[in-house]
Structures are given as C-alpha cells and as structure tokens.
Amino acid sequence: MSTETTATRADAETPADPATPRLTVGYLATPSGADGVVLAVALARVTGATIDLVCVVRPTPYDGQPGLAQYQQRIEAQAADWLSEGAALIPAGFSYRTVVTVNESFAEGLTSHAIDTGATMIVVGGTGDGLLSRHTLGTVSNELVHSSPVPVALAPRGYADRVDAVLDMVTVAVPVKPGADNPLPFAEKLAERAKLDIRLLSLVSLESPFDDDGSREVRTAQIAVARELLEKTRSEVKPELEVDVLVADGTTLDEALANLPWDTNDIVAIGSGHLGSPNRVFLGSTASRILRWTTAPVIVIPKRG
C-alpha cells in the first residue's frame, strides 16, 4: 500500500521519454536522509533522471482497539510531512514525486518500489555517527548492499553540504581476479548518458609488513600486471569516452586506498562479491574497504546472473 504525490518545480518540465531513468530515494528526516536526496539530485543533474522520494512506514499491528485506522493515517501523514521537508532540498528544474509506502521493512519497501517503477538505482545515505565525508552503513543501507536487485548508490556522511555538486568522473574498481564481477558495463552506460569521464582503478598490495627487496620486486610485478589489465580494459571502452587508468599501490590494501586521490565530483562504481546471489547486490570484502576509505559516493552493482 502506498500513497504518492507527483510534483515538479515551477520551471521544470515533466519528462515524457519513457526511457528516462528513475531513482528511488529512501528518505527519513535525518541528516543521512538529506545526504541521499542531494546525491540523487547530483545523479539526476547529469542523467536527467526523475526522483521518487520514498518514506517507508510500518503497518500498525491490530490489537483489537478502536481507532487503529486513524492512527495509521496519522503515521502516514507524518511521513508525508517529512517527505515535504526532503523535497525542499530538490532544486528548481527537477521532476520528482513523494511516496509514502507501508512495509514491515524499510529496505524491502524501497526495493519493492524500485522494482515496480523500473528504477535504475536506489539512493540512500549512511548513518550520522561516522566520520564526516566517509561511509558508515546503517541498518537499511547494510541490508540493501547485501540483497538489492538493483544498483545501490550510497552517499557519504555530510554529502548534503555539496548541494551544487556536479558529477564529472566515475571511478571503476576493475577486479584483478579472473571471474570476478566487473562493474565496467554499468559504469560505461552511466558515463555515456551522464557525459562523465571514466577512471579505471586497480588496487595492488602485498598485504605484508615487510619492505625488503623481495617484497618490492613482487609488488613491482603486480603493478605491471595491474597496469596491463587496465590498458586492456581501456581498449574495450567506447572510444568517445575519456578514460584514465590508475594503479593504487601500497604495502597493504588499506594503505593503497589511503593513497588514492578523490575529487569532490567523483562517484565510484564497484561490483558485488563472489558470495552474493545472481542479480543481487552483495558488498564483498574489497568493496567494503573501498567504501570505508573513499570520500566519494559509491554505487554497488548487482552480481551478474
């Protein structure tokens, strides 16, 4: 069950193209809710997507007392008020609608809405208790990145301060292991539609505390292999897209990630881990570490079927 209100700013035009992408944005009246809205706006700014601002409320269990329906209506009315506050963060010129839906699970409510509307992404913020500009998964975002059938975009804490962010580059974490899920096809489509540059990223680390000559030789060989992989991958990308390659190197994976430069207009695409189910998002161990270190928004892509 859901109620929705369609709205556009005074100077916006409602998209008529059925191919226009749609974003499902999970919203609560919290700082992380605002982070998710601002990330959705940044994505819509470069893709032309319409925004569904969704608040999920739980059904009130029947306890035999009168007035249950009225109580549920008050809860949904409160959610609608919250959505109005969230919609105020959407600038003029963007098409959006607000939706209150009822479900036992916030994450399930979002995924159901995304599937029903053919959304290209679910967008959420993390939690408000992590480091500024870093990612911290909450209950909803954690469930989404381990079960969603559509890509999940995560906003770092404090992203709401970047109200004028214009995405200009998608960094793709290219897997080095054979058979690992590759987010490049998704990222290439996103870059093509949004006119983004692509940065192909490979992580190299020895995961060793030693820094002797043997270790350095091994790491040098690993870097050469990673660069060869990236150059091969670059040759497979459409020639009209601007592509850069970067090998992040460090004694440990965390050190390699700490050495990475991140721009305020970056977004990162990562694939799902091998333990995930087909056609579902599953945040693997390497992706989790990227999420912990990057200051950019992250999109986790479902594992290929």
Features of the shown structure:
single chain, 305 residues, alpha/beta, 11-stranded mixed beta sheet, 8 helices, 11 strands, 34% helix, 22% strand
What does this structure look like?
The chain has 305 residues and is an alpha/beta fold. Helices cover 34% and strands 22% of the residues. The protein contains eight helices and eleven strands. Strand 3, helix 2 and strand 4 (95-102) form a beta-alpha-beta unit.
Biggest beta sheet summary:
11 strands, mixed
Helix content: 25-40%
The unreliable regions are 6-16
- The share of residues in extended strands comes to 15-25%
The rounded distance between the terminal residues' Cα atoms is 30 Å
Number of strands: 11
How are strands sequenced across the largest beta sheet?
1-4-3-2-5-6-11-10-7-8-9
> What is the oligomer described by this structure?
single chain
Tally of separate helices: 8
Instruction: Return the structural class.
Output: alpha/beta
Write a brief caption for the model:
Residues 25-155, 174-302 form the UspA domain. This protein has 305 residues and is an alpha/beta fold.
List the SSEs and their pairings:
Blueprint lengths: L1 E7 L13 E5 L4 H17 L2 E8 L10 H20 L7 E8 L3 H12 L3 E5 L13 H6 L7 E4 L13 E5 L10 H11 L2 E9 L7 H24 L6 E8 L2 H6 L7 E5 L14 H9 L4 E3 L5
Parallel strand pairs: 2-3, 2-5, 3-4, 5-6, 7-8, 7-10, 8-9, 10-11
Antiparallel strand pairs: 1-4, 6-11
Organism: Gordonia rubripertincta NBRC 101908
Protein name: UspA domain-containing protein
Pfam family, one: Usp
